[in-house]
UniProtKB/TrEMBL annotation, chains A, B:
PROSITE patterns: HTH_TETR_2. Pfam families: TetR_C_13, TetR_N. It comes from Ruegeria haliotis. Residues 3-63 form the HTH tetR-type domain. This is TetR family transcriptional regulator.
DNA sequence: ATCAAAGTGTACTGATCGGTAAGTATTTGC
DNA sequence: GCAAATACTTACCGATCAGTACACTTTGAT
């Protein structure tokens, strides 16, 4: 089992799961799309669930890396970086093939709170929260945890609105609301 | 086809779809859970998709009725009613068997923007937005559409956070943020 | 009482689900 | 160059998927 082969499978599976959903994507479809044989597929991943968990790990890592880097390129103060996260979201929404947040979708398809896939999706959201909370503390907010929670609300809301309520510019609206929250929390 | 029989099937199917998801719920499971025969099932609904659309119509109607009534019972000024919508959300989150927003989940499982199920989920979100926008106009907000969009962001964010980020009290955090937005938009 | 609508159970279709068996080819490290 | 690991093809498993055929029973309005 060459490690890069496995990674390649995870990358390709990520695309298909993201595009078509988890239950709607069968292992046979993945076998066709990756060009790998079914036997090899099951050599690398013992079950579909194990594959999905690997996909979510990759997505978590690459998404958080991307947004962290993008935010640091845009602003250098903690408060500025919180605001910049909404500019990054806007970029993401405008990407070709944008289909919403993979973790919201994973949580929606695997709803039991103790299901491994649900747990892993929740863990991603917790890490995203932690990032904002760290910035809020560095910015000197009055109640950094609450501010971070509110910022996250705006982020999640913007994602959902970008998918379902194609009305207006959710990232921009969220950005302005976030700015107001920041000003109030720092005053 | 007695109409009440059909409604009963929709009500029961709603529970199962809400609990287990759309793709994960087969027609056979619904037949068992409703006690109806498969033949009758397909007399009432020509396809699974038609059943899901009927379920979403019922959910849209009853959910919007419920939140509208709850909001009117809690406050009588337009601004107060906007804030009260977050108290209603909090009640909802604390219900037994709360599993998030059925329309977010429908949009997540049927992702193509022109899929009938996706379209109907989006329509529900539009109607929810319209309700808030109406209140924002009556309250005399400076830019009622933008305010309504921001309120909706907080609502959607609270729902997602209630499902995935069990951290804190999303409805309360959203409520406070909404209050701040309102004060600023009305000043 | 009758007749049609609406209900029933059972058995079936072909396709697809996740996952496996058996045997063969191709890389890979030493 | 050789052996072991890895990947391959093909065919298969039992279960479930959405949906249908057919023959039978209950129900309700006239």
């Amino acid at each position: 089992m060459r490690p890069n082969k496995r990674d390649e499978l995870v990358r390709k599976a990520l695309q298909v799961f993201y595009r078509d959903g988890f239950h709607a994507t069968g292992m046979d479809k993945l076998v066709v799309e990756t060009g790998v044989s079914k036997t090899s597929m099951y050599k690398h991943f013992r079950t579909k669930e194990e594959l999905i968990l690997a996909v979510l790990r990759l997505r978590d890592e690459s998404f958080r890396n991307w947004i962290l880097r993008r935010v640091e390129e845009t602003a250098d103060t903690p408060a500025g970086q919180i605001v910049a996260s909404f500019d990054a979201l806007k970029e993401w929404f405008e990407e070709d093939g944008f289909r919403g947040c993979m973790f919201i979708k994973a949580g929606a398809e695997y709803q039991e709170a103790d299901h491994p896939i649900h747990v892993q999706a929740a863990e991603h959201k917790r890490l995203m929260f932690e990032h904002i909370a760290r910035l809020a503390r560095k910015a000197g907010a009055r109640d950094p945890e609450k501010l971070a929670n509110q910022i996250v609300l705006l982020q999640e809301g913007a994602i959902v609105s970008a998918v379902l309520l194609k009305n207006g510019d959710p990232a921009e609206d969220a950005r302005e609301a976030a700015q107001l929250l920041l000003e109030t929390a720092l005053a």
